[in-house]
Amino acid sequence: MINRRYYEISLIALFFAGICLGASPVQANMSSISAESQECIDCHSSINPGIVADWSSSRHSRITPGEALNKPELERRVSSKDIPDNLRANVVGCFECHSQNESTHKDNFEHFSYQINTIVSPNDCRVCHVEEAEQYGNSKKAEALNILRENPLYHTLVETITSLKTFNKRYIIHGQSSDNAKGESCYACHGTEVKVTGVNTIDTELGEIEVPKLENWPNQGVGRINPDGSYGSCAACHPRHSFSIEIARKPETCSQCHLEPDVPAWNVYRESKHGNIYNSIGYSWNWDNVPWKPGEDFKAPTCAVCHNSLLVDSENGIIANRTHEFGDRLWVRIFGLIYSHPQPKNGKTYLISNADGIPLPTTFDGQPARDFLISPDEQAANNAKMTSVCKTCHGSNWVNSQFAKFEISLAEADSLVQTATQIIQNAWDKKLADPANPFDETIEQMWASQWLFYANSIRYASAMMGPDYAAFKNGWWDATENLAKMHDQFLIEQKLK
Questions:
Q1: Which of 183, 209, 243 is the last residue in one of the domains?
Q2: Considering its fold, how many domains does the chain have in total?
Q3: Which pTM was predicted?
């Protein structure tokens, strides 16, 4: 093994390299590193210096769980009260994360006399972050892969757009769907199911090492199914190995997946007044403070401010509790099949069935599947949570007027979807298109674009005040043009029939 002195020299080299590159200096608490993690560092500081440097700058490397538990409650970043004694005295290093729950990890393997898990899952993080793991586990994000796979309509959509296609004289033939295409597109954000399929032998500086062979890896999707059976990837927002709260709080992290044309939250935010303020002075904000204070630590909301951060006023009075159930402050779902509707009761939206027995949260004429959606009282409670966030910077009249405009925008966007749905329903009734696959014919793809792209753009633009996305960037212009094209296509299909 590489000795401790070699590690210290490596850290010094990384320190000066960081200074030259403008990075933060290494701040690891070397006196509190466990013997097991020290052995990991001794090797990996040479083999994977980027990983070690990233971890060395993290809070995990500087503070022990015991010290974290002794902080005032509002300042704590751990929520577990019963962290095992053997983990309290050492900083959270390689071994502390990669050795948890080995009996449930199919990706566990013997590595230089230690049993190591390749993937650190939310179930491992819950040792210190139990509340966050439980909240996340009930969210739509954790169920993101299942939502695509288990909802027959979404499944058909994914299989259709990722199938290999050939041309046969007159017709385009949808062939076998591509696992690679799904992994590089839909599943990149929603997650893959990572399976252990055998053993790989890899060459390293220390010789040949056997490691688990993983299928559908690498992937950091929010609904990834891990080899221990848990759902999700904490690293999707808190990237390894710094697991930075600053990165998680910045909207660029959300922009990995929440962007146009289907979920244009990042694009709308970027052109909004809030985004303008963030782009102008966000560099000066305190991104690391817990709890977070509006007006002091930041001057305008980000995704994290509105959806999940712990916010307090100047006297440390709680404005909004921390949550990793990202629908906790939402009363309406503006994205989904096919109209806006009350938020689902839980993340398992693939269990929803409307009055017509179709796996949709509404009927084709817009009636909500109430048994699967939150009640009006729950909607009001969630609305109040979001309102309290907005009112930290805006007066009641401003906030109430904005929310009233938003409700009108939802109704108007839904009306555009309803018109498109009437056209496609008429086409199906007249057998001008086949509803067995509602996404593979021209007029059907126009219908899907109406709710998946254009109506969504209007809804997000209204919610987050990005007007061009309500008008010309996949907004009213495109929705109106799309309806005209759908009508023309309907007439063409009639003539061909």
A1: 243
A2: 3
A3: 0.90
